[in-house]
Amino acid sequence: MASALGSVVLSEEKLKTLIHRAKQWALLYGVQMRKAEDPSNPATVDFAPMTLFPSLLPRAIFEEAKSLQIHFQRLMHRAAHDHAFLVNCFKTVIQVDEFTRKMWEIYLEVQKQGLVQPLSLGLFRNDFMMDTKKARFGKNPSHEVPDGLELKQIEFNAIASSFGGLICGQLPVHRQTLASAGVEVKDGQLPENKPARGLAAGLLKAWEHYNVKNAVILFLVSQVERNSQDQVWLECQIFEQNPAVHVVFATFQDLIQKGTLNEDRKLFLEYEEIAVIYFRYGYVPNNYTTEKDYNIRLTMELSRAIKCPSIHYQLVGCKKVQQELARPGVLEHFIQDPSIVSRIRATFAGQYSLDMDSEGNKAVEMAISSPSNYVLKPQREGGGNNLYGEEMKNYLIKIRNSEERQAYILMERIHPWQQKNHLLKLGMDPSLQNVVSEIGIYGVCLGSADQEICNVQVGHLLRTKSSSDNEGGIVAGFATVDTPLLVD
User: Fold this and answer.
1) Is residue 5 part of a domain?
2) Which residue among 31, 55, 310, 356 is least enclosed by CB atoms within 10 Å?
3) Could you tell me which residue ranges the Glutathione synthase substrate-binding domain spans (predicted)?
4) 301 in active site
């Protein structure tokens, strides 16, 4: 089978023992989450969903995804600072999508009152899959890596790009499972991966540019958070790199009750000045339960604190921006190097507008007639939002003549390469399954409209799920954390 196991056969008893040990190693190395049934209790931590073995990833695919990261970040940075481009992107979406309209209104108010903090910090993750539409399989496709796999972008995550901490412990877990199964790997097949280190360095660089010695870094979080361990990874890395910098955790409610903005637009939480706001919350509608939540978000955006992300950085993570960037000639507006344009464009799957015009009408009918070839995406980050197949078809039939369709984009469906692996999830019996993987590349970008201070790639996240699952979120219960085993 096409997996790190190769031809190795494990007895049922040895496999059972290895799975048990892998779960223990995951807890030891910090690959852990709070249990879904008791997410507010820090004492109920268990192993995070994970694969038993690494999954194969062609080295050329991996290297291209990594090398493109700084170019994607520069593209999104420039797009975020192009007001006319953003207006064109969101002019129809905000008519029908209330949450996006609320974010857009905050953006406009910041533009109106003026930026007192020109710098924005992005801790981004760019997600890709390996498409098989043009792949060439050998005589035994279940044992071989096909030629012609294509790197295709799924989405660009601009806010709360998670698992950069937790994934740091997955590599040592997989090294042990491979060794225990008797699988030998060559030097360089298991690439080192410490994204938490680079992400923390990005937060510290922003803190340094704020240039107030006693100011703190604020992690904006939810009241109840299953994935709190991932945030603690970053907090610990900040301490390791600069023990003098303090991290505080707060919710919208904390800031509503104890936050103040002074005349100089410095933001305080009680008596502590905030240098950097790192958003791990505030990216979906149900994060905003009252108008006070939107108001405090505006207050944060108007402050001198460096936002990660700023409101305009968050907006460029919307699917409508992804679709507009795929239009002919748009990349050239932001990037002058034709070779970079060509490489970025090669990762784009088909993207189609659903505006109320002939182009949108054509896209709707195209999807209804061939629902297996497309996916319907709203303007959201996080898993569990997309529509596929017959569900998508029936929904499009329902809204085909309604302006409501403008809240979505249509995307060509990727047909990812399948392998086999064991998926380990709490409360579920592990079994050998057909799986597909998604490779995400982390990066840090710090700059203003006319200055690029930092633009680096800092690590990766491989997420693997059953081939029968459409969605891919880990917290949502679909995907598992994984490690790439590079093959030439």
Assistant:
1) no
2) 356
3) 215-316
4) no
Whether 388 has a binding-site annotation, put simply, is yes
In whole angstroms, give the CA distance from residue 200 to residue 309.
14
364 and 269, same structural domain?
Answer: no
Q: How much is the average pLDDT of 203-221?
A: 98
What is the arithmetic mean of pLDDT over 467-476? 72
Which of 475, 483, 484, 485 lies closest to 48, judged by CA? 475
Question: Taking a C-beta distance cutoff of 8 angstroms, is the pair 124, 156 a contact?
Answer: yes
- In sequence order, the 6+-apart residues with CB closer than 8 A to the CB of 32 are 26, 45, 46, 47, 48, 166, 229
155 assigned to active site: yes
pLDDT tens across 1-60, in order?
Answer: 344 554 467 888 999 999 999 999 999 999 998 888 778 777 788 899 999 999 999 999
367 and 430 co-located in one domain: no
> Among the options 377, 440, 459, 472, which is catalytic?
377
pLDDT above 70 (res 471): no
pLDDT on residue 1 = 37
Query: What Rg do the C-alpha atoms of the chain give, in angstroms?
Result: 22
Does 291 count as an annotated binding residue? no
Q: Do residues 434 and 292 share a domain?
A: yes
- pTM of the predicted model, to two decimals? 0.95
169 is in an annotated binding site: no
The Cα–Cα gap between 266 and 251 comes to 18
pLDDT of 2: 44
Active site annotation includes 175: no
Any binding-site annotation on 319? yes
Q: Which two tokens stand for residue 270?
A: 């009680």
Given 150, 155, 235, 301, which residue is catalytic?
155
Burial of 335 (C-beta count, 10 Å sphere; 0-12/13-18/19+) = middle
Which residue in 34, 66, 102, 125 is the catalytic one?
Answer: 125
User: Does 231 show up as a binding residue in the annotation?
Assistant: yes
Residues 412-423 have a mean pLDDT of 94
Give the tens place of pLDDT for each residue, 81-122. Answer: 999 999 999 999 999 999 999 999 999 999 999 999 999 999
At 373, which CATH number?
3.30.1490.50
- Residue 379 sits in the same domain as residue 450: no
Phi, psi of 159 (to 5 degrees): -140, 140
Within-domain flag for 6: no
Instruction: Spot the catalytic one: 319, 320, 393, 405.
Output: 319
